Each structure stands twice: as structure tokens, then as C-alpha cells.
Amino acid sequence: MDSWEFNKTAGAVLGTALVVFGLGELRTAIYHSPLPAKPGFAIQVAEKAAEGQAGGAEAPKVPLGTLLAKADPAKGKDITKACQACHDFTKGGPNKVGPNLWGVVGRPIASHEGFAYSDSLKQHANDKWTFENLNVFVHDPKSFAPQTKMTFSGVKPDAQRADVLAFLRTLSDSPQPLPNP
Questions:
Q1: Would you say 131 and 165 are in contact if contact means Cβ atoms under 8 Å apart?
Q2: pTM for this structure?
């Protein structure tokens, strides 16, 4: 290779490097993004509720009675289709991975015959599945019973949770009265 060919090759390599680095500098001049004051990402964590609330979960923003007055059991039935993988909703039906939920509203907690409940739920055995307790549990099972076997993360929207509770209320020969709005 003679010097002329070498100069053309070196010029092409240097020219390409100049264009690449020049475009990089041009990009930072056009699309400038300032550095944050503190590096990292803000992670939002739900705060613990005040002592004395059921299971330590936060209180709903809208009163439960008001939500239940507007709730639609048919929508709740559709929402609970995912629950059917672990729970049976029929009268006298079997326990699955979770207990049968027929008549759950008003039933003592951790009391369905033939199901092995976690110690977290057994600690609530003196309580009943009231609408308030079910609301907290369905919202976030781990906040109500931290070592529960239930791996479901919960139903977060208030209206959907009220629909689920309204549907669970229908799973009884004598449905429990709704709380006052």
C-alpha cells in the first residue's frame, strides 16, 4: 500500500470519528437534561395507619356504607372470576387452595370447616368477617394478616372492592344487612 492509500484510509477513519463525536456533542447541546439534585428514583411507600384500625390498613376515603349502596353484585361476580382459581363460591362446595366463600359475610374469621388457616388469620378467630374486615382484607390481604397464605395482592379501587363485597353478600341464604351509608 502506498502513502496515498494510507492517507485516504486514515482520513476516512478520522473523519468518521469526528462526525460520530461531533453528533454526540450536538445531541447534548440540543437535548440537554439536567442532573437531578439527588440521584436515584423516588419510591412511594404506603404509610402505616394509626394504631387501632383493623389490621393496620388505611381507612377508605369514601365511607364503606356509601360505596356498598352504589355497588353492583353483577360487576363483583365478574371481578371474582380470578378468585375462582383458589376459591369455590357454591353452597356446600369444596375448599380449594382457599376456603369456600359461601356465607363468608358474617362468618367468624378462620372458621370454615376443613381448611387449614394461617396463624395470622387464626389470630382474628374471635372476630367476624364484617363488611369492614372484608374491605380491609380484600384491599390488601397482607395488611390484615401479614403471614396469610393468600398471595393475591388485593383489589385496590374502592368501587370494584365494593362490588366484590356486594357479590359476596349474595352468597348466603340470608344476606347480611348493608351498613348505613
A1: yes
A2: 0.66
